[in-house]
Amino acid sequence: METRARYALIGLFMLAVIAAGFSFVYWLENTGGFMDRASYRIQFSSPVPGLLVGSAVNFNGIRVGEVTGLTLDAADPRSVVAMIGVERNIPIRADTEVSVEVQGLTGGALIALRGGSASAPPLEADDGNLPTLVAAPSASQDWTQAARDAFQRVDNVLAENSEALHSAITNIDTFAQALARNSDKVDSIVAGIERMTGGSTPKSQLPTYDLIAVKDFPPLDEAPGWQLVVPEPTALMAVNTDKMQTQPAQGESVAIPNAQWADNLPVMLQEKVVQSFENAGYAQAVSRPRDGLAAGFQLLIDIRRFAISTSSEPTAEIEFVAKIMGQDGKILAAKTFTVTAPADSAEAPAAAVALNQAFAKAVAELVPWTADAVGAAPVPPVTTSPPAGTVPPEGVMPPEPTPPT
């Protein structure tokens, strides 16, 4: 009997120790333990879902206490009263804001306090009650319910505008069907835009074509006694390009897709005209302005047309005006050169062949005409003056200056 009584006392002692440990932990967590706590009362005018006794109380995001009690206001069934215990040194003032927040997506609710202005008075007790903070009506807003309300408003808007939405969807369907019926035309339009903007094929990958200088000229009887400079020809913007072009109608130009000249047409034509003069035996008499030749004459060329006409059968058509200008700036001779050559098609390879044939005809006429016009023109006299500071011999009069012509 004595042994059994001793075991019973030991069991009761262990139960008492365990109960005391649980009580101590509960007291430490819910009443602040050894900290000096201040109690406050918070009144909510809306539900506070998820808020429990023991929930955290944060001040500006820092945990400063816990919820110590939750009750309903008997005078107002819509109100909830929460008692909180926080550290006594927390500056809770009369304008401190209160809200209920959720920790994370699935965490519990907590009471969040936000500090008021420094000039506001500290929150004091009223009529012997705990100091009371009154939360705003939206402080404990249920975000789930708010989402339901928002979806309900969206549903109302859709219901009120159902006919307009149905009409818009019908119009979109009609437009999509029209696009499907005319898909080939849409592809053609897009391809045309790409050709116009040069975006169909990278320029570095385009086939490049060049003009060919004329080589077959009769030999010269004697070396020319004149000097001729060939400046870069002038042309309208539609011709001053490196695009090989067709002319479906008078005054209309369309670039041939996926093809280009080796350079802008005026620059290339100038180069090939000079080469043609050199092939004819005028290498020492003809040059470009950049070569620094002191020229007595200039061959001015104005390009009017350089394209494949597609109004009927494809035909290469070249037209330009050539003028011979003397040292005095006067035009000594002028002629319009118009040549054509048949083309097998308006595609780039056939167009390049036809344009080269027409160019050869034009240059074969241009070179002898220019040589005859310059050779027949009077050469301005060249007067020389004695070096500056030279004194003529006694009795010899200095030559009178030649009056300008």
Give your account of this protein's structure.
The structure is a single chain. By secondary structure, the chain is an alpha/beta fold. Among the domains are: 35-139; 208-376, Rossmann fold (3-Layer(aba) Sandwich). It has helices spanning 2-30, 143-160, 162-181, 183-197, 265-279, 348-376, and strands at residues 37-44, 56-59, 62-72, 80-87, 97-102, 109-114, 132-134, 208-209, 228-229, 234-235, 245-247, 254-255, 260-261, 286-287, 297-309, 315-325, 331-342. Mean pLDDT is 81; it is low at 381-387.
Features:
405 residues; alpha/beta; Rossmann fold; seven-stranded mixed beta sheet; 17 strands
Structural class: alpha/beta
Examine the secondary-structure arrangement and name the CATH architecture of the domain at 208-376. Answer: 3-Layer(aba) Sandwich
Q: In angstroms, what is the radius of gyration?
A: 51 Å
What low-confidence regions span 5 or more consecutive residues with pLDDT below 50? 381-387
Q: So what's the overall shape?
A: rod-shaped
Number of helices: 6
**CATH evolutionary superfamily of the domain at 208-376:** ABC-type transport auxiliary lipoprotein component
CATH fold field value of the domain at 208-376: Rossmann fold
Mean pLDDT: 81
Q: Describe the biggest sheet?
A: 8 strands, mixed
Q: How many runs of DSSP E, i.e. beta strands? A: 17
User: Terminal Cα separation, in Å?
Assistant: 157 Å
Strand content: 15-25%
Helical content class: 25-40%
What's the CATH first level of the domain at 208-376? Alpha Beta
Order of helices and strands: HEEEEEEEHHHEEEEEEHEEEEH
